[in-house]
Amino acid sequence: MLDVKDAISADDYVDPITADPREFAAKVNAWVPHDIVLKDAWFPLAHSFAVTDKPVRRAIYSQPFFLWREGGTAVAAEFHPADADKPTKSHYSDDAARYPVIEKYGYVWCWFGDPANAAPEHIPSIPYLPEDGGLPLHMLGTVRFDCTAPLSLENLIDLTHADFLHADVVGDEKMDKETVEVFHDSETITMVRTCVNKSVAPIMKIFGGVKVDVQQVRQVIRIYLRSHAAIAYGRFSPGDNVQLFHPCVPETRDRTRLDYAINTTNVKKTNLFRYMMPKASYKVSRQDSYMTSPQSPRYMNPEKRKDLHSPLDEAGQKYRVLMLALAERQAQGDFAYRDNVSADCSQIIGYDGK
Amino acid sequence: MAEAWWAVARSEEVTSAKPINVDIGNQPVVLWRDAQGIVRALEDRCPHRRTPLSLGCVLGNGMIQCGYHGWTYDGATGHLKDIPNLKSDVKFPPVYRAIPFAVSETGGFVRVCLDANAPAPLPAAVTLPLCGTVNVALDHEHYIAALFDDPSAVIGIRGVRFTPYLLAELAEHEGKLVLERSCQWAGLHWPSPFSSDFPITLRISTDPVTGECDLLLRDDGFHPLLSATLAPVPAARGVTQIRWRAKLSDNRPGMRAKLLGAGPPFFVRSNIDGAALRVLKPSASIHAATLRNEIAARTAAASAA
User: Fold this and answer.
1) Preceding amide of A238 cis, omega within 30
2) Which of B148, B169, B195 is the mutation pick for testing A, counting most A CBs within 10 A?
3) Would you state the pLDDT for residue A192?
4) Cβ–Cβ gap A64/B168 under 8 Å
5) What is the C-alpha separation between B70 and B64, in angstroms, rounded?
6) Residue B83: CB partners within 8 Å, gap ≥ 6?
7) How far apart are CA A100 and CA A65, in angstroms?
8) Cβ–Cβ contact B282 with A under 8 A
């Protein structure tokens, strides 16, 4: 039951990436991520384990969400049950001020948008997370960024930053060859980075038992645009694959919550990497925040000066344009999903189930 | 600024014993209580020789007398009533007056409006018992921006640590600028950047013109723990005068909440760390000016209609 509205027919859709190059460049440089508020999307607001009988509070673009369980089933409401001074209900919840909720992949997902448009088919595909959850707690965690969510994701999809900002975790820029490929549809963007003979990630050398100095790397970042959720899948040879789910929930337009999952069940139980890799998020997130926190206010208002770009920024540029295109469509009243985000993306990201 | 009601004093500060001087921007104002206990406000300038009336005294009849030549003014109208050395009952023409300002006293604050004919503000429901006054060498706009961006720069709540994380960004609600910030109890705990949930929040609701703020600290069960009103007023030389009042809730679940009452629970900083302020990232405050302009435009349009 894919929700395809007839506000604008599918035939009218023009791929914003392949349209006029000058228009593309103009959009890249008109990037004010702070102004983008996408609706009709599922957001993973909490790990399943965090939702109990006692309400916990979350937010999407300042819209309050209170999550708890009733008879074991996760529910979400606009008001805290103890809030006697209930303000006026918004149009994001139903008559009982409840939001649509789905529990999948070990997360409680809530719908932000018109409740009538909520459909399970709009939950992103995450091939390496078990649909019924159940990952050990040490593979889950929360980190926060005081920056706007699209900047967090633009940061993620540009993996060249990792060679400098996170060199002490994932390795530096030394390698023989690097290629970046970018694929997209109207709802997703996927970046594939292939590195030949890249310096070994220190975390793999220290904890993962990788003894050599270089490794072959294929890293994939796939962003589900509306949900601001990314999957980061890395294949390392020698080394273990990294399977990260990286949802950037925009709690406000300038604050991002990341309830991550790093599935290291593929790593031997005797290998420390299985336990240390999920904890690397604490270090990596602070390194990212060191840059994105001061960066964020500088993207809050339109600027006449254009950002400069390199060929390695292709993914980031396209991400900007796709997000702006979605925002423009929604501004015109078109909230339909033109592409299926729940279709298994294993092949796209190169995940073979191992 | 002319039509706003500025909380220029706490009720306790204004007496009939001695007039006090306050500022609203570059406008000096003298305050005192008359014989009926009503607070009066005039320009703090004797029209005779421009000396501050606040250097004078309050007479037994409740009028204010300039300390230089004894010219005496009625607080309600500002009219000159007496020049003692004339030793006559001469009536003075209406032009012999100090400029009067509108005054309202409610909720433990004395508010002044520079427009003497302004309608009185709505009365406050309660008077918060804890109070104080602080002068800060930071201008009004930046003071409020600092409160939005990092409350710890300007205020403190006993045992509470403000995090950088917001549950609601600055937005307009019923004519006020409102945001809600996640907070932690002070002491050893999981660092805020890695915390899933926070036990308390601080809601700041701000008047778009005066910057007067209602603060509400509440726990994750929505129990109010502490209420405070912070009234920053622009004063001379870029100084901001802050009057504040606060009240701890009687029912505060949990040990940490109860410890709020183990000492002064709320304070306003008189010294602001310039080095920290300089590098304080503008974030929550960044759209404040736009929001204020939108509210002002809407208010003006409504008035015109």
Assistant:
1) yes
2) B169
3) 95
4) yes
5) 9
6) B69, B70, B71, B72, B92
7) 11
8) yes
Domain boundaries defined on chain B: 5-113, 130-303
Taking only the tens place, the pLDDT of each residue in A211-248 is 999 999 999 999 999 999 999 999 999 999 999 999 99
Q: Does B300 touch chain A (CB under 8 A)?
A: no
Does position A10 have pLDDT exceeding 70, yes or no? no
Res B303 pLDDT > 60: yes
The 3-state DSSP composition of chain A as helix, strand, coil percent (nearest 5) reads: 30, 30, 45
- Residue recorded with tokens 């006090």: B20
Q: What is the CA radius of gyration of chain B?
A: 22
| Ranges for all domains in chain A classified under CATH 2.102.10.10 | 40-134
Number of Cβ pairs < 8 A linking chain A and chain B: 77
Q: Tell me which chain A residue has its CA closest to the CA of residue B192.
A: A144
Tokens linked to B253: 């679940």
SS3 B37: coil
From residue A50, how far is each of A44, A153, A276, B206 by CA, in Å? 12, 24, 22, 33
Which of B157, B215, B149 minimizes the C-alpha distance to B186? B157
- % of chain B surpassing 70 pLDDT: 99
How far, in Å, CA of B59 to CA of B16, rounded? 8
State the pLDDT at residue B2: 63
Tokens encoding B198: 């926070």
pLDDT(A88) > 90: no
Q: How confident is the model at residue B277 (pLDDT cuts 50, 70, 90)?
A: very high
* CATH architecture group of domain A139-349: Alpha-Beta Complex (3.90)
Q: What angle do CA A12, A13, A17 make, to 5 degrees?
A: 145
Query: What CATH number does the domain located at A40-134 have?
Result: 2.102.10.10
The CATH fold of domain B5-113 = Rieske Iron-sulfur Protein (2.102.10)
The contacts found for B60-65 with CB under 8 angstroms, 24 or more apart, are B60/B35, B61/B35, B62/B16, B62/B33, B62/B34, B62/B35, B62/B36, B63/B34, B64/B19, B64/B30, B64/B32, B64/B40
d(C-alpha A342, C-alpha A1), whole Å: 12
The yes/no answer on whether domain B130-303 falls in CATH 4.10.860 is no
Instruction: Report the pLDDT value the prediction gives residue A3, as an integer from 0 to 100.
Output: 39
Q: Considering only the beta carbons, identify the residue of A142, A282, A293 that sits closest to B281.
A: A293
